Amino acid sequence: MQKSIKGFIGTALILVSGIVLAGCGKATSQVKNTATIMEQTDISSLDSSQITDVGALETVNNAQEGLYRLKNSPQVVPGIAKAIVKPTNGQTVYTFKLRQNLKWSNGDPLTAADFVYAWQRAVNPATKAADAYMFLPIQNAKQIEKGTLPVSNLGVKAVNKTTLKVTLAQPTPYFKYLVAAVPFLPLNQKVVEKYGRAYGTSAAKTVFDGPFTVQNWTTSSVNWTLKKNPNYWDKKAVKLSSVKFEVAKSPETALSLYQSGKLDNIILAGQQAAQEKNNKGYLSYPSGETDYLAYNFRSKAMRNANIRKAISLVVNRQSLTQNVLKNGSKVPYGLAPEEISKNPSNGADFAKDSSVKESVAYNPTLAKQYWAKGLKQLGVKKLNLKLVCYDVDSFKNSAEYIQANAKKYLKGANIEINAQPKVQAITTMQKKRGYDIGFTNWIASYPDLNEFFQLLNTNNVNNAGNYSNKTYDQLYSNANVKDVTSTQKRYDDFKQANQVSMKDQAIAALNQGQIVRLNKPGLKGIAYAPAQGISLKNAYWAK
Description:
Strand content: 15-25%
GO molecular function: peptide transmembrane transporter activity
Largest sheet: 6 strands, mixed
Mean pLDDT: 92
CATH superfamily of the largest domain: Dipeptide-binding Protein, Domain 1
CATH class of the largest domain: Alpha Beta
Oligomer: single chain
InterPro entries: Peptide/Ni-bd, SBP_5, SBP_5_dom
Low-confidence stretches: 3-28
Family: Belongs to the bacterial solute-binding protein 5 family.
Pfam families: SBP_bac_5
Subcellular location: Cell envelope
Helix content: 25-40%
């Protein structure tokens, strides 16, 4: 998931590592039942079909609930569905049974028809839903999104008020994660049609079915409140009576507010992560993100494997993460970060299990050899390369580090940095023109390897470097078609695909992201999901 733009995305249900906070709180005569949480930016909408920013996803995930909830990665638990469903008919049909007497926050009954309406609305081209691509596994979704079939042909049906039947185009192992995602939330048709395009533009023009309701929010708000939802089916599990979100765009301001007791949970940025590491409230967890260099294969120089390998080998990823970024990010193993998938046979983490060491190694001596060989093959003595990246400090600083190391170790290498606003940079990379190297990132929308390996599939819109390899494509296809019903075979397909692409140096993985927070030690029970922020359903203050 690339947060500013959605191609096959990315914002995704990026979900990777759900972590429950632990801490010790001093006993008090009266336990608090409210909390104040930092939000990094204003949020744009409460309409589950339209939002892409993490802040909005965070608020909506605490005020709405779908068929499933993501407990942690990669575990889902029932939400307003009674149980986790085992698919039938060759793993293409899911029959969900909803809980009895479900209600929206305005008192309207919530039924299976609310899912049918929401999903049909999302795939309707007229809606221009940011995450419409996530519905493609459902029968006829592809044709509907292309405008060749009406939305009524989508493979979703309300059998009765409490039974929802979903038919997929083919088996999709990660479908359980999709139905836990924001785009798959139900919608109250009466309310949506009442407000039309204004639905979700304020708390007053939205209804909720989750643990909390949103109060006092409009698109210009810098703070808003979640209040416990008395109509929520599991309201007994909700301990906090209210939660206040405060926008703090400055990391320094957020830290000051935390230290003065005005914020209970904040996100740390940049060097704060290192400075606050010994704080009792410090917490670091995977963000499900990989930052990487995408070599543009339309560039003659980048089609040379020796040139690609040389550039990767002059990057000291340990130094990059610890001395340049200083934000808690970690050295990567390949395209997919840790905590996305594990080997079914032995539990090994995919990132380590499938790694190709040389693809992320630091070896200037070997880099010089590859570089000299590459220049000779190209018939040149120097290369001027254009690197496009996002216009944000972490990317610009990393790009300058790569630029300096290339100049230091690779004779005749000159990398020109072109920092662009993120949306513009992503658009440039999607067009595959105007650069030799694209510095980009991806954040998992759901905890499945397909999220990352579609990035290198031939002709994928998010294949920033236009990489194409027949062996890779076949392995990717096997994982999603021939071997899709075998957990082990599918894992092995992705493992081989990763090794093919890393040996080919299709991309240069630079770092895997971490999210670093400070949380008051007495505030427990918060669960974390990178692309959705924090879940407060089970949050409480220790006595």
